[in-house]
Amino acid sequence: MLTVIGLAHRLRIPIAVAVALLAGASLIALSGVNPFEAYTTLFRGAFLDWYGLGGTLVKTSPLLLAGLAVVIPLRAGLLNIGGEGQIYMGGLGASVAALYLPGLPTLLHIVLCVLAGALAGGLWGLIPAYLKAYRGINEVITAILLNFIAINLVSYLAGGPMMQAGAPYPYSNEISEALWLPLILSGTDAHVGVIIGAVLALVAYYVLNHTTVGFALDTVGAGDAVARYAGIAVRRQLLGAMFVGSACAGLAGSFEVLGLKYRLYHLFSPGFGFDGILVAFLAALNPLLVPVSAFFLSGLKAGALTMQRATGLDGTVIDAIQGIVILFVATSLAFTFRREEWRRFLDKRKLHLAEPPVARAKAEESAR
Amino acid sequence: MPALKLRQIVKSFDGFRALDGVDLAVQAGTVHAIIGENGAGKTTLMNILYGLYQPDEGMIEFQEKPVTIPSPRGASDLGIGMIHQHFMLVDTLTVVENIVLGLRGQGMSLNLREHEKRIAEMSARFGFNIDPRAEIWRLPMGMRQRVEILKVLYREADLIILDEPTSILTPLEIEGFLENVKSLRDAGKTILFITHKLDEVFAASDRISVMRRGKVLNTTDAKDTDARRIACAMVGHDRILTVERMPHRAGKPVLVGRGLHARDNRGLEALRGVSVSVREGEIHGIIGVDGNGQAELAEVLTGMRSATGGLVEIDGRDITADDPETRRRSSRLAFVPEDRHTTGLVLEYPLWKNAILRDFGTARFSRAGVVDRRRAVEATSEWISAYDVRTQSPYQKARFLSGGNQQKLIFAREIESEPRVLIVMQPCKGLDVGAIEAVHRTILEQRERGGAILYISTELDHVLAVCDRISVMCGGVVTGTLEAHEATAETIGVLMGGTMSKASAC
């Protein structure tokens, strides 16, 4: 029994997801569609169909990187809610490097574009980190405000100075085809970004769990007093964690531009930065699970379209189900498992079941 | 007539008796101070009176009737009001709104104008000088406290409990506050005043009770006692220690602080020119009532707080500008901080991570930036057996260790860094007798090895038992240094009490 409970605790996230999908099924049924059929089309469309899988992977790339952008700073206790803004700055940085740095060798130019995006995102994230570390200003508020600035800055540039002449819609000139990221599934839009993201997740896992850098970050997250006592330069760690995290978000922006859109569009990210927070929590802040949770969430998003076409079910139902999944997962994370307490509880119950009530009352009496 | 009578109140938390049979009688219309160190049980007692906790045993009589106080609301209905250390006010509301908030019997409509008039009258009657329409966030701390008092008065409380009321006030505000307390008493209210600051007790109260280790030790009229006697009762002089101490053979000074100045977290001057020296093979004790600059002194010496003046030297080298890490590595300065839970350990870390907490970056526990987990676990296992840390394994979280075992782990980590200087701050707080002995034995062994030890404590019996020299701190200065053989509870009491008046004057 104890082992079963322990196992259930280890698997609490998948269990929560399954229960959430069941709860979602009732929502689907309420809308008058067969839930089984709806889910089947959804998952077949998202994961089992070649083009559907491509669509899922396209969305996995930014979600995964945005998830890392939350996980890494959170280890040091900073909640990076500015992923969206950092994605926009990343896209801007990559576009500028791609459009205005002519005459470079192709490979070098691609690398430069990618790094320019990461750098732009990272620097954007340094602003709230600096204000937090040196001025004590809440990073959540500054990062949210910086999101608006970044989004509108890109809108202005894409619709003004960088806009393609005669474009019907705010977007820049097209980036030279030589700079486009390689595709990974022929016939689909899936690009190499998702692979790079997965590799980064592995690197993040190793660094956070096995190196002195990870140790220092975790200690900073545990509290200011103990970190200073441990001899850690707290401010430097805060800035470093936020820079690296935001650079991941910046990378997400780069890849959107270089791998998918090939131009700088205004409003090019539909909230990937915010979804990154969901990805991070769904992964229980474990970098190894971030690719998995990003893949799952983007599958829901991509499959929703197929499902909508096949069953006529409104796509907003999927948004609602996504919300339920997050809610259930967040709740499941609050459960802790204490082997000893459970053992005592089970023993007591066994005792109660074994003894008839009268004998029990007597036993309690004599114990008193 | 006693307004409040407590008989044998007991309250335990997880087997620890925070209140161990408290007896107390408070006369109506007096200011009654309850004084004691942090952890003596004062706040637990007040929370019982305010209905936040229920006592496990014992009886409460209020206005000569036995009562149970089920909740703060129940306390308020009886006529007991409490002013917490941290104010419970809504910053964006006005004074009137805060006072009326949660007031019973208001019906569907609220006549704020009428309340405003009555509050203004009340404020004038007690000389509080408060604008009822002011928003809280605009008011200084002293004014906010008056609002808290008005809140309680408006609910017609007869007994007003003030929990550490001066801890966030400036010296000038404290003076005004003490006047307010007296005017409340003159209006016939009974005031229970919790504090650990001696000078305030004598400035405002009629009767004084000393609490220590969950008991009320003695209650006297303020005019029949003095600061020295109260200070002695607070730190206690019951010898419970059995560790044996070899004769003292001190060498040359190792750690020297010269004319140190520093500010506390509120920006007030906490150290006003402190000089100390600790010699090889010597345990130098610092004793004093809590909050007289000891914590700041330890932090300045270890580099966790910057000095605003003065020098810290080790072996004649100026290390004032060094950060804590440099002091640990180059000057071999080890530190056992006061707060095990938020400073000394990361409770969520396993023991092996806590064991390398301050050395994870050194060649001993990491290579090329990768933490050598195997070595860390090996070292932890060794320390666990060498220092008798009772635990299941090095992988257990520090949270699940008892206080004594947590402290043993911290001592293992600090001693194993082979320090020249060891600073320990209140190392026996919350430990049982066995653990206290283990801590003291470890400290004495370090002295035998020629280490220089600074032992900061508020427990007089501990300091007398292990220290070779003892300095007394009060009001941010060292008021005297004694050799162990000259030091007795009485001579130290003179130094602790003798400057109390001076400290309150500045």
Automatic annotation (TrEMBL), chain A:
**What topology does the record note for this protein and the membrane?**
Multi-pass membrane protein
Q: Which superkingdom?
A: Bacteria
Instruction: Give this protein's Gene Ontology molecular function annotations.
Output: transmembrane transporter activity
* Pfam families for the chain: BPD_transp_2
Instruction: Please give the chief subcellular localization of this protein.
Output: membrane
Q: What does the UniProt entry say about where the protein is found?
A: Cell membrane
GO CC terms of this entry: plasma membrane
- Please indicate if the UniProt record lists Membrane as a keyword: yes
Membrane spanning stretches: 12-30, 50-73, 85-101, 107-127, 139-159, 179-208, 238-260, 272-297, 317-337
Q: Which UniProt keywords apply?
A: Cell membrane, Membrane, Transmembrane, Transmembrane helix
The protein's name in its UniProt record: ABC transporter permease
Q: Please name the source species.
A: Methylobacterium planeticum
Q: Upper taxonomic classification of the species? A: Bacteria, Pseudomonadati, Pseudomonadota, Alphaproteobacteria, Hyphomicrobiales
UniProtKB/TrEMBL annotation, chain B:
Q: Which InterPro entries match?
A: AAA+_ATPase (IPR003593), ABC_carbohydrate_import_ATPase (IPR050107), ABC_transporter-like_ATP-bd (IPR003439), ABC_transporter-like_CS (IPR017871), P-loop_NTPase (IPR027417)
Give every ABC transporter domain span.
Answer: 4-238, 255-500
Q: Which domain of life is it from?
A: Bacteria
* Pfam families, alphabetized: ABC_tran
**Molecular functions per Gene Ontology:** ATP binding; ATP hydrolysis activity
UniProtKB keywords: ATP-binding, Nucleotide-binding
Its family remark reads: Belongs to the ABC transporter superfamily.
Q: Write down what this protein is called.
A: ABC transporter ATP-binding protein
